[in-house]
Each structure stands twice: as C-alpha cells, then as structure tokens.
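Supplementary Note 3. Input sequence used for the single-chain structure prediction.
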Amino acid sequence: MNNNQSVLPRPKQVSIAVKLLYACIGVGVLIDAVALFQAVSHYQAEMSTPLLSFVVGAILGLGLLFLLAYKIAQRRNWARVIFFILFCFSLVTAATTNWQNMSSNKLGFGGLAVQILLQLIAVVLLLSRDARAWFAGKKEEK
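The predicted structure, written as discrete structure tokens, is reproduced below.
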C-alpha cells in the first residue's frame, strides 16, 4: 500500500454501505435460524441431506457476504466488484423466484425483501463519486 492510500479517510458512504451489509448478514442469520428451527421441528429421516445442504449453504453464503463486507471496508476494490456481480445475480434470482409461493412464508419473504433493499442501498453508496475515488486511491476534489 502506498502512502496516498493510507492517508485517504474512508468516505461516509463506504462506512454506511459496510454497516448495511453487516445488517444484511444479521437479517440473514435471523431468517436462516427461524427456517432451520422450522425444518428441525418437522424433521424426518429423509430430510437429513436437504437440511445439511441448507445449513452448509447458509454458512457459505453469509460467510462470503461477511468476507466481502470486511474486505470492502479494507478498501479492496476486487471485493466491491465481486459484491456487485453477486448482487446482480441475486437480483436475477429474485426476479425469477416464484413470489406467490414465497409470500406464504411472511418472515422469509419480508427478510428477502429487506436484504435486497439493504444491498441495493449499499450498491448505490459504493458507486458514489467519493467511494469510487477512495477505491481508486484518489483524493476527491471539492
């Protein structure tokens, strides 16, 4: 890291975006914990593989989001780019989700909507002029 990078303070937009991503993780943990509790309470022997897949998927997904948020806070542009790409994929997935079936699970539906909203706001903040300049290592001229 050169001296120019270490002197530039983190813009407020980036700090807020990172906090929103951490909040998104919190929402995800809550939703996954409730879904896991519901699945375990209806547990049947033939569900062990889907249950394990759910737990592993939740840990990997939330872990990846945590890593990306942490690296974005450390000014790693590659993390910001990967987050944008994954966010775009998640929007496509959300757009193709059967929302009619999803709406029967109010917590899951609401949680997903909140996560998408938090991530969308984070994307907008990470694309702001100050944030782009910070990731590029340039001082923003006022």
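The chain has one domain: 11-135. The chain is about 80% helix and 0% strand.
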